[in-house]
Design brief:
The protein has a domain at 31-73. The chain has 4 helices and no strands. It has helices spanning 12-27, 32-43, 47-58, 64-72. The longest helix has 16 residues, at 12-27. The protein is globular. The N and C termini lie far apart (53 Å).
């Protein structure tokens, strides 16, 4: 069966931009929601799509609590 790639698939580069944006915002004491708003136009996606991707796929790869505790120290 010939498997076709969706044209709106997330690339490794897209994931890196989203993750870097979210982690930067969290380290600066800002919210993840604001990070999704910031990343959306860069990635050509909605903020909801960015939030879904972060929560469903990327969040597991990053220890957000550790990042938040480092920011407070």
């Amino acid at each position: 069966m010939d498997e076709k790639k969706r044209k709106d698939s997330w690339t490794v580069e897209d994931d890196k931009v989203l993750a870097d944006t979210v982690l930067t915002f969290v380290c600066e004491g800002k919210t993840q929601l604001k990070a999704f708003v910031e990343a959306a136009p860069i990635l050509g996606r909605t903020r909801q799509a960015c939030g879904f991707r972060w929560n469903k796929t990327l969040r597991k790869q990053y220890n957000i609590q550790k990042t938040k505790s480092n920011q407070k120290s």
